[in-house]
## 1
Amino acid sequence: MTVTDADFEDPAFKAQLEALRQHYLEGLPVRRTAFIEAWHGCVDGGGEAAWLSLRDAAHKLSGSAPCYGLEALGVAARELDKLLSGNAPSRTRAQVAGVVARVQGLLDAAVAPG
């Protein structure tokens, strides 16, 4: 199925998109909790599992958030994903703390009531 510009004007299509967006936003608190728990598990010189969990959470947010109108969250999560990936991934809290705080702040704002 190909989506056309005309589809975006169709009320039923718009309603479907809004329902998907609401469903995503309703699940965001769980993603936020997983992100924070992964961050708390990251210790300098610690095990790789928590760092990979944080990277995975950032990667998923970087791809999904912009699709639901959360562009700034996607950009910040992409920045974190890049820091945690690649040939020389960051594995110290000081290197990533600022970006983590920005992602968390944007998550907090997205899940805040109203």
## 2
Amino acid sequence: MKTRMFALLAYAAFAMAAFGDQANAIVRLLNSRASGSPKGYADAAAEIAADAAAGKPLQGFVLAIVSREPDAPPAARLDDATRERYLKASRERITKLAHRTNNSLAWYLLSIDSGDTNLLQRAALGGNVQALNAWGSMLVNNVVATSSSTNEIARVLGEALEFFKQAAGQGDANGLYNLGMCHARGLGTPRDDEKAFGCFRSAAEKGHPDAINNIGWFFREGRIVGKDLELSTKWFKKSADYRNAYGEYNYGLALHRGEGIKRDDAEAAKYFKRAADGGCVEAINSYGLALLRGEGVEQDELEAVKTFERAAGIGFPPAMENLAHCYEKGKGVKADDRKALLWRIRSKAARGDRAAQAWLLQNDKERRR
């Protein structure tokens, strides 16, 4: 399934009576950031920035937090002085609300301002839907990244699942998506494609770009539903319209293959490039292939090698194999059988081949070259 793992909610939407009607644009800003919609993110950021400049303190507070992100839209980029001014304008008010009423949404806002995971946990335990998603996502990523025992991994994944269930139970699109990923991957629960599809479909109906992309995957693969390439391509295009990197990649793939749509390599290359710029490693590799073969773009073997190196640096085995091919055939680089072999071994190691991993460890100089 070509999709991101979870909606990693560093920030998410909120709407509380204490803030009245100010939350509408903020909801769009932070939800689009979490759900993989760069277009919605950029559009909402422009609106929030205008409100912040007009003196609305809450919008300024959220904009200041978003501005810390490396991929913040242009409208959300602030200089240090403006960022601190915006934060100070609302920080005291939100802090008082949290302490006086134990408001879980206020605790959540303070957690994303300070990066304090204790506050995030407090907000999640208080039932704040955004904190539920953020805390559950953090639990999953932390346990996956550690060498915990099997029992501990199962316990933590089960705990994360319950947080996602609570968020999904409130009808939250990100909660539904995250719960769907748990069912799809068998995280904290037995793998169940039917339940995963149901969660993704509910999230997609709420406009969640990652979930929309996943629905396309189900129709392309004929999983749970009848295989329908024309319908799958329509779902991918809908996700791509949000500028979702995985939707763009899958739509580009459909264009390249002529699946459910007339083959068009030029359009495919355009979508591969967009998705690559959005960080989709599969798309980076596919755009490299387009450059190598001159499919839909002017052939440029040197640039193809650079593109494969970018994807290989992220740890993508097919890109490593493509680099091996380039070194073997002298495409974009000087032919070098030793480097070709080295990239093939790296590819096998990245796929989990223990013999290849052992060889790289024993030949550290080769591994670092």
## 3
Amino acid sequence: MGSMQTTEPPVRWTAEHIPSQDGRTAIVTGANSGLGLVTTYELARHGAHVILAVRNEAKGEAALAQLRARLPDAGLEVRHLDLADLDSVRAFAAGVVADQVAVGVLINNAGVMMPPRSLTKQGFESQFGANHLGHFALTGLLLDTLRAGRDPRVVTVSSTLHKRGHINFDDLTGEHDYSPVAFYAQSKFANVLFGLELDRRLRAAGMPMKSLLAHPGYSATNLQSTGPTGPMKLAMKVTNRLVAQSAEMGALNQLYAATDPRAESGQYIGPKGRSETKGYPSLVQPVEAAKNHDTASRVWRISEELTGVQFDLPVA
């Protein structure tokens, strides 16, 4: 990966290491629970103005009230964003652009995990649609806004399960063969392809913006209980109690990627522990297949076609 991948996070990096975020605006998708809520809290605690981008506005307002009780003076606002609906993604981005918000960091955090097969409003498989295409479109639509931000970064949250993923180019919607786990892995693999390709294109454009990847290891969030059904839901309930680290620990990886001056574009940040399941932030490596430029370019082209969002960036 070359010398640019060298700077490791400090050994026990915690939220106390986050530098002042005063004057910086952050957008966190899926901000009302789990990793997103922790990330929002820590960014706001360190002075950022945070836009909670949420699908369910009632849950967003409840999260806002919870945050305000702990941080009465924080700059926080809730805006509606349904990543499974490109019309909603466009409306959200248009609102941010119209308000002339200079966004310093976009954290592509929201995720759908292992549900029974369903399609988004535009007819995409729900996990690929929300986890990848929605975030792809959102990033592209906010690119100019990010250019104006302070220390601009895009942080895309993946999963260790990306290592089991591949892109089913002939059956992206899972019409012929759907497995909740395989299609979750595909969406997280697409996240890594996107984050690395965005880094390459930003470098080719000479843009001082960073694209980083992060994953939380195995962290206890409601993701494991809201998506899966049947025996898988039960199994995850048990492992959440026995194996998982807290959402506070899991969120450190994306917080480091979003805020630390040492974090470099193209890096992938995940827990240091065995199998990257838990521990403090460290540099981790994506699966070799995720570094394939041809696959990444192909996914990028298809994503532009499916979303209708073109990035004003040269091909790397």
## 4
Amino acid sequence: MLQQPEPLDVAFQALSDPGRRAMVEQLSLGPASVSDLARPLPMTLSAVVQHLKVLEEAGLVKSQKVGRVRTCSLEIGAIAQIEIWIAERRRFWMQQYDQLEAYLAQTAPQEPDQ
């Protein structure tokens, strides 16, 4: 039986592509149409739509069609989950570095007084 991938795994997989990261970065400035997202990218509009589908399936982006224009925006909840995960890793490694620094300070050879 196949297991469903975790949401965080799907999100990081979606963000592994530089084009999709560029779209997320552009959407961090505010909602944008698919055409606006495609303009600076070296890919066809069809490719942009496929990449947006990956981002939507990962829960990172939502889109809404009004008339003939599809507008995309970031899904803040999913981005917040990624931020929390990264902050937890950062906190862990900062503690490790602090412990290493304390250990090195304790074990450093003492300089003789002159």
